[in-house]
Amino acid sequence: MRQEAQPTGGTGSEAVLGGAPAPSARVGMVGAGQLARMTHQAALDYGVALQVLARGEDEPAVAAGAPWVRGEPGCYEDLVALAKGSEVVTFDHEVIPPAHLRRLADAGHVLRPAPETFVVSQDKWVAREVLGPAGFPFPAHGPAWCAEDVTRFGDRHGWPLVLKATRGGYDGRGVRVLEGPAALGAQAAALFPTEDRQRDEGSEGPPWLVEEHLELAAECAVVLARRPSGQMACYPPIGTRQVEGICRELTVPADLPRTVLEEAKGMAKAVAGTIGAAGVMALECFWTRDGRLLVNELALRPHNTGHITMEAAVTSQFHQHLRAVLDWPLGSPALRSPAATVNLIAADDRATVPDRLPLALEDPRVHLHLYGKAPRRGRKIGHLTVLGDDVGEALDRARRAAAVLLGAEVHDPAGAGRRA
Amino acid sequence: MRQEAQPTGGTGSEAVLGGAPAPSARVGMVGAGQLARMTHQAALDYGVALQVLARGEDEPAVAAGAPWVRGEPGCYEDLVALAKGSEVVTFDHEVIPPAHLRRLADAGHVLRPAPETFVVSQDKWVAREVLGPAGFPFPAHGPAWCAEDVTRFGDRHGWPLVLKATRGGYDGRGVRVLEGPAALGAQAAALFPTEDRQRDEGSEGPPWLVEEHLELAAECAVVLARRPSGQMACYPPIGTRQVEGICRELTVPADLPRTVLEEAKGMAKAVAGTIGAAGVMALECFWTRDGRLLVNELALRPHNTGHITMEAAVTSQFHQHLRAVLDWPLGSPALRSPAATVNLIAADDRATVPDRLPLALEDPRVHLHLYGKAPRRGRKIGHLTVLGDDVGEALDRARRAAAVLLGAEVHDPAGAGRRA
Lengths: 420, 420
Hints:
Structural class of chain A: alpha+beta
Oligomer: homodimer
Number of helices of chain A: 14
CATH architecture of the largest domain in chain A: 2-Layer Sandwich
Number of domains of chain A: 3
CATH class of the largest domain in chain A: Alpha Beta
Number of strands of chain A: 19
Shape of chain A: globular
CATH topology of the largest domain in chain A: D-amino Acid Aminotransferase, Chain A, domain 1
């Protein structure tokens, strides 16, 4: 080898001599939360111009510098403003009127997933109506238009039982466990107001689902991506752990029998094909003590459980989502390392994260992702991931770092809470 | 495990209920090129508010959404505008008057690295004056104030020889190999104009260095980070390959004898300690056919060779740079996988990257990073990295993807160019 002439190394980044490049593609995303924020980070790598629909500059994706259209996801004109100049429109959340999306598609805009697919993730009743007859297993369930429907279901399947709002996004209208008829009686008026608010949303389904209460052995999520042309890439199933109703921890590989994991993967791929998914899809599954693998939830966008792919897989779910909605070849979903992710749920309203952050980084293997959200008790302000030779070690380290960052008790399944 | 109440999963990113969080820290970066762009991506993960000094909105970091101060790195008032509101000021390039930096520091702003450290990377003559007496090995060299200095050096050390501009950033004023006195004669008037432009820059050193011409066995770069408090984290040395004077390919682990790699790491750490580095530092080394390990170049910022750490190491150099300049605990520099990186040097001026991009992504293990720069022949518009079980396989795949993306000949050391 001969020493060659070379430019002076001491210039760092080269100056740009005028003119921005043509973007690789233009993608619009409805919503500007943390999923849009991390999608923006990924879009930069591909030269994709991502614009988001946001209510204001404090939203996480806007604060991260994503170009944005000011507007409300409930306003059709705002959706049109986003769709104009976007080759593809995709989603950061589900709280968008399905009728608006159908109208957008009818007007010629490309939505990925398509409205008739996306609604499966927007409405739990539709999900069961579509996927149930196709043979996908759900917990025993029925529609709940009124308190009597719940009582009848309880008489048949026993108590406790679970009520799930069919359409999400109202504060406090999520999932409730009812221990018995007395609990139902106390809440009936609030659950089933005389005025039928559901009508206003243009849905023909019931406001609530009632489901059997399950004794769970474990939960897992299968995250995959599907292109419109049909190619799929499925990540290894991710173990999930809920605490007080919020997904708190992820682990991969998931600690479930291999046969169950294979079954979950197969089920997720079949669901994606059945509904014509486009983009990232997450299928949350229950594995019950009596050995049933059941569908819990479905999301058709990047998903909290997929955050672990950012470091643990070859391709992050955010890069993958862009590739999938643009119908580009998908990245490898292969696992690079066992890993654990802990969601950072703010323990208080004081903005002391900056002070604690360097302490949390004392573990040199912690990967931190903050979402640009002010801490408020119970709010998910970020997540952190640790890779390890085994999941247990990674989870221990991730829990410790999260506790330090939040100034909270270390989560310890054995119950021995310990101040970090 | 008991099935628990949980919020409706179908909401995606949560809405932000007003108010942005306090940033984890405020960092100012002089320059807004691709290094600043990728630092911005990393800063988002840590909730660090990074603002950059840029000439306009087309610069890569500004196009990526980094908050910015409009200005010139050569203007003291613009540097002050950046430094105000920044806890720490750091750098994307070296083309900043050292006197301005000294004045900024004197005015109480925190610069990392400090001006007296940074100048070692700004001026190759200063580097040799500082590091030579401390025992660090450079190629034989001397100052070149005029053509006679070069001739005398050639008489003593033989021809060809190498001329290096001591301070960078002028187009065409980089590194030149002079085959003999005739070549010098032809260029002397351009190299040494009567009017001494160097005086204007406030430097007391010579405009050029003259160095022995080396027969190289290999080149490598050692990238490390150092905190002001002294902690260091050193990545495994990275093999580099130059083509036509531009760093074209990186591989890790570097294909050099273990003893040489250990020596290079030790040298880099000693250099960092000697000059009091703060932030990322890259030491580019020559390994000669006659078995000498020599210092080539020094950078005190994230560096092109460090791009391979984004996927190949536990902690990317951009996260690491932020941690280091903020004096936070450093991340692990451990290697996660053998890897190869190919810089994307535009082959032409046509903006056809968007069309070729999906083709380049047909290899599911390609990690692409575009810099938001319009393609122009010879311009570095991005890089891509492939991880593999071994470096050779990763390099083959990376070369192929780069060639597809650029519509260029596949680079093949064996010389058998092949249209992708």
